[in-house]
Amino acid sequence: EEGRSKGTGLEGCKAVKSGATFKNVAKKIRTKVTFHRPKTLKKDRNPKYPRISAPPRNKLDHYQILKFPLTTESAMKKIEDNNTLVFIVDICADKKKIKDAVKKMYDTQAKKVNTLIR
62-106: CATH homologous superfamily? Predict the structure, then answer.
């Protein structure tokens, strides 16, 4: 070990004696007045136990989205004349979720979804 450290010291000494030029690294110009701490290495967390006991379940499945079909006279007229189904759906469901729920429950591709909050 001593020989190795001595060797590296000798190389440095030779470089200094021979007059090797060392580059001066230019100082970085700061352009902002606020100093932000540099982002350093962030390791992935490896917890000893999970912080939540069970994974969250999906509260809005296709059974929850489509509540029941609407059976008023105007809805029946729509079914007969316009080939349109009318459902009461969950308030949180968006058009894509309604479309997917109809496909899953009734094996039919919905062409278009119209919504009305009532």
Answer: RRM (RNA recognition motif) domain (3.30.70.330)
